[in-house]
Amino acid sequence: MSATTTPHTPAEESAEKSPATSALASLGAQNLSLVGALVVVLALFGALNENYLSLSNLQVIAEAATITGLLAIVQTVVIICGGLDISVGSQVGVASVVSAMAFTSAGSSAFVGMLAAVGVGVLAGVLNGLVIVYGRVNPTIATLAGLAAYKGLAQLLSDGRAQGYVLNDDVFVFLGRGKIAGIPAMVWILIIVALAVHVMLKYTDVGRNLYAIGGNDTAARLAGININKYLVAVYALIGVVVAVAGILLTARTGSGQPVSGSEGLELKAITAAALGGCALKGGKGGVGGTLLAVALLGALENGLTVQGINTFWQNVAQGALLVAAVVIQQRRNGERAVGLPN
């Protein structure tokens, strides 16, 4: 007579799992692979250079990754809802220049400089959204045009040169070089933005609607979601965060930078979002994975610099990582290769 077993309930099965197993399951395979890659990069460059893992250099990595992190977070949001923004780097340049010029014109008022930057950022973001929604222009094309237009605007406003000087102001100095509890103020700003966006995506109706729009816009529309309103709002949000990034760039460099420090940020942001698990077709992604990818890119870039490797290889590495991330996504989704049978 065979023995019978009583099936476990989901609660019992969950209780049998160790805390470590539960933690790994909640982290997810995508993020777990990023953690592994980050550990490998840190260990490799740490073995090659004893100063790489020093506290001072880790702070340098964190500060350098902050602006990219801010852009990658909002890039995650727009990709989740099925869009894209290639113009974020150029928008940072405009915000940086405007913040410094307004600061100087207002008699060294940090508040005026920051407010002007946020205003310009929102205007640029809303303009992108309106072109995409009401002009019925593909987001890639619309923001590619924005990439060129905003870069030109930043150069026109600044005459192609760095503008203003903000390091005589306590607020800008604190933003660029200050610390709270030993952590750079810039990093705290990134943490606050990341937590706010994470909460919005995971625990609010707004976040659920964004995932729905990216997953199936037709079903979302039939469910009564105002897609046009959401898309314009998302691009406006990008404008706000981009303005914050521009202000931090100004604070970090001491002046408004039309191109230097902002060029190429769009590639880094998109690469981080894709590596972090965002499906470029929309409907999938999260802040946690994106931040891990930002950390990985920052550690890799700093390691190459510390080792004296030609900086051009950093662009090669970023491009390779972006392709690798998309290939992995396609394989996981079972997408058919272009021009090849199933």
Detail the topology: elements first, then pairings.
Layout: H1 10-16, H2 19-27, H3 29-48, H4 55-80, H5 88-105, H6 110-134, H7 139-158, H8 170-177, E1 179-180, E2 183-184, H9 185-203, H10 205-215, H11 217-222, H12 227-253, H13 265-275, H14 287-306, H15 312-332
Antiparallel strand pairs: 1-2
Kindly provide the radius of gyration, computed on alpha-carbon positions and rounded to a whole number of angstroms. Answer: 22 Å
Give the biggest beta sheet.
2 strands, antiparallel
The oligomeric state is single chain
Shape: globular
What structural class do the secondary elements suggest?
A: mainly alpha
**Low-pLDDT segments:** 1-6, 9-16, 19-26
Q: Helical segment tally?
A: 15
In total, the number of strands is 2
Report strand %: under 5%
Provide the spatial order of strands within the biggest beta sheet: 1-2
Terminal CA distance reads: 49 Å
Question: Average pLDDT, to the nearest integer?
Answer: 87
Helix content: over 70%
Secondary-structure element series: HHHHHHHHEEHHHHHHH
Description:
Helix 13 packs across helix 14. The chain has 15 helices and two strands. It has a two-stranded antiparallel sheet. It has 342 residues and is mainly alpha-helical.
